[in-house]
Amino acid sequence: MPLITFDLTIGTKKVERLNLSHNAISDIRRGVIGNLTRLSILDLSNNKLSDLTSDKEFFKLPPNASEVYLSDNRLGNLPWKYIANATNLRVLDLRRNNFNIINKDVTNMIMKIP
Predict the structure, then answer these.
(1) Helix H segments across the chain?
(2) In Å, how far are 13, 34, 46, 73, 75 from 95, measured between CA atoms?
(3) Is Transcription one of the keywords (predicted)?
C-alpha cells in the first residue's frame, strides 16, 4: 500500500511542481500537500487513490495551487467544500474516476472560474 507521508515534504518548501503520477499511491497523509507552501501544480493522476474525504485537510491547498490532476484514480467523493475554497485553482482534472454525485459546491466553484 504505497502512501505519501509528511516526512516526504521536509526540506521541500520551494517545490512548485510535483508529479507523482503512475506510482500506485493509495493514500496521502494529513498535512503533506499543505506543507508544500509554493506548490502550484500537483499531479497525482494514474494512481490508486480512492478516498480523500477521510482527511479534509488534504485539500487545504497552498495559496499558489493552480492545477491539480487526479484523473485515472478510484475516487468516488472529495471534500468539495475545501476545493471550492482554492481560489487560484484553474485546472482540476477528475476524469476517469468513480464519481456518482457532484455536489452543489462544485457547481458554484465552476461558475467562478474565469
Answers:
(1) 80-84, 104-112
(2) 29, 23, 10, 9, 10
(3) no
Residue 108 lies in a domain: no
Closest CA to 99 of 83, 86, 114: 83
- 13-17, 48-52, 109-113, range with the lowest pLDDT: 109-113
Instruction: Write out the residue range of the structural domain in which residue 57 sits.
Output: 1-100
- For the stretch 60-95, pLDDT in tens is 778 888 999 999 999 988 777 667 677 888 898 989
Q: How confident is the model at residue 1 (pLDDT cuts 50, 70, 90)?
A: very low
